[in-house]
Design goal:
63% helix, 0% strand
Length: 91
């Protein structure tokens, strides 16, 4: 293997997020902050930033993703059992 560094075929393009606050009441500022937080979470800006802070080996990444999937399935099964119990009680 060579020590050649592979670069992405296309350069990374970052989309700026713009939030405009209109009015100067306290409520509009709080709502603007809520909207901003929702946009940041939707665009996965912070999670991407945290992931890029350090290198994660592929095996560690697979292990982490597998664990997250197991947790997600476990929570889904608990919700399903809870829903079934609720429907059973309802009848």
């Amino acid at each position: 293997m060579s020590n050649f560094v592979k670069f992405p075929a296309e350069p990374l393009v970052f989309k700026p997020i713009e939030v405009t606050v209109r009015g100067d009441s306290k409520e509009s500022f709080e709502s603007a902050v809520r909207i901003f937080k929702a946009l940041v979470q939707k665009e996965k800006i912070l999670s991407t930033y945290k992931e890029k802070q350090s290198y994660e080996k592929p095996s560690v990444k697979r292990r982490r993703k597998r664990k997250e999937a197991e947790e997600k399935r476990f929570i889904a099964s608990i919700k399903q059992k809870k829903q079934e119990a609720f429907e059973k009680r309802k009848k």
